[in-house]
Amino acid sequence: MLTVILQQGINGVVLGSLYVLVALGLTLIYGVLVQINFAHADIVTLGAFTAYFVTHLFSGNYFAGIAAALIVGAILGWLVNAVIFAPLRERANELLPLIATIGVSITLQNVMLVLLGPIPYAFDTPYSNNVIRFGGIFLTVQNVLIIMMSTIAIGLLYAFMKFTTLGKALRAVSQDRETAALMGINPNQLIMLTFVIASALAGMSGALLGPVRVLTPFAGATVIVKAFAIVIIGGFGNVEGTIIAGLIVGLIESYTTQFLDPGLIDIVVFALLLLMLAVRPTGLIAEKREENV
Amino acid sequence: MVGAILSSRRFWFVMAAIVIGLLPMIFSDSYWRTNLIVCAINVLLAVGLDFVLGYAGQLNLGQSAFYGIGAYVSTLMIMKLGMPFWLAFACGVLVAGLAGMLLSIFAVRLRGHYLAIASLGFAVITYQILLNWISLTQGPLGIYAIPPPPPLRIPGLPAIEFNNLGNLFYLTAGFALLTYMLLDQLVRSPIGETLTAIREDEVSAASLGITCQKWKVLAFAISSAVAGAGGCFYASFVGTLVPDAFFITESFTILAMVIVGGMGTLIGPVLGAILLTVLPELLRGIGDLRLIVYGVSVTLVVLFMPGGIVQAGRRIAARLRRRAAADDTMIRT
Description:
The complex is a heterodimer of chains A (293) and B (333). With 293 residues, chain A is mainly α. Chain A is built from eleven helices and two strands. In chain A, 73% of the residues lie in helices and 3% in strands. Chain A has a two-stranded antiparallel ribbon. In chain A, strand 1 (131-134) and strand 2 (137-140) form a beta hairpin. In chain A, helix 1 (2-33) packs antiparallel against helix 10 (239-259) and helix 2 packs parallel to helix 4. The longest helix of chain A has 32 residues, at 2-33. Chain B has one domain. The longest helix of chain B has 27 residues, at 212-238. The A-B interface holds A 30, 34, 36, 84, 87-88, 91, 93-100, 102-111, 113-114, 225, 228-229, 231-232, 236, 261, 263-264, 266-267, 270-271, 273-274, 277-278, 281, 291-293 and B 59, 105-106, 109-114, 116-118, 120-122, 124-125, 128-129, 131-132, 248, 252, 255-256, 259, 263, 288-289, 291-292, 294-300, 302-303, 306.
């Protein structure tokens, strides 16, 4: 029994760290822009496919794949901002960018569907079948890699936000764009930077989740709705809250699969979301933001 | 004189009724008649969403849930309890409306993106319940052989059968037109003005003595009841129900119709629903590419004509009028 609980705990942390990587990008963008980006899901998917093809191209070098996914993600983030969010910014409407990104998302998913087909790709990295055993607990090296890479990425992001001038400027913009502009910060450049960082994270999370989840053109779309739930449970725009909420959702998912029924995962997660919104809409960690509540 | 007729609502409603009457005669094959019915259902869904989104300003992404609730409740009432169609229809609409009121509990406290995600969460939960409550909904296997609405018997006239696609179109389109007329009355009444006031500025509205909560609940209830009616018609028209028809992407499709047509007007969602239903069918020849065209056109509309078809049309009309006026003065001088 204890081994099952521990095993599922580890599985939950693996899933949770993937969710955190996806959700962090969303929350960063929300922090500076107060906008929702549905195309984030497809950057995850494109990251996964980039990693798949590059890994094969470099005869099984998975790290080349991860690096390529990171770069592709960053470029796509820049594009989404330049084409969709920047032109719509002056209209100051919360609905238009959301719908435009739904349009982008439908387009990207179907372009991938035409080019790559609906049949799941078997993305085996050199680490997928490498199993480590502790007593009765099994852990693939791939899963260890997921936890390690996510921890490193999250740590670097955290340090960047806390200690560098650019990171401080970013937080300043997310707290008050007008005042930050008065302090000589160019908000447009920082918004662009946020999109690049957020989408690079999304691309990387795609590269990491490709081998452990079903890799189809809809791989990102299945994760994104949960990522939105995580962002809200953690408090929109709140990095620490998002990390905690992501891990909680990962654990809920693995324990629900083990002890209840896999079909109930989404119901449990979204019931938690609605409960959270009813009881404590500011998220796990109280935020200063008030315009939405 | 002509202008007065053209601007009168009654004239346009009569015209719409005539067009609805003529359509099944022009499109006599079952393929296009099926599309006509889908159009009518989508019009219903789009005007329903527009009421809560465009008039009350509530960012609701849960419309697929109310659509599904209406479809499943009415079907289960007919199939499991043997209820007559119109009673089951009323139940479906009522339960969908009540579900909308349930969601509006969140709308009372939340705004903007929070409401968007909350309503999306509501749609995900509803979809998963439909999928997993197998003893009731038969889950992914679906419910089959749902009967069409019973024949309408008016004394002295031959019975109107609804297993005929043309008559079923008259029923759904007639209901959609009736809903449109009622909503049109509603948005031009003080209630519509109250909702618009809440949309524009909730704090100012409250300071004028408007109880915003009460009106939001009403807007959600009406909007989701309309979607529920769409679901009832969908079930009896298609004859089978599977949860996938009410996946959250359905909410996005309805939203796209409202936006492409023109949010905050009632005629906009009608045009958007017709365009986005017919366009993919016309593009069926290019196969999978049609959804790409769909996605690209939604994106382009938002970027280049954010007011949708209605606003673009108004702008063109204004330009033509100005040109006509300019021509007029040139002739006179």
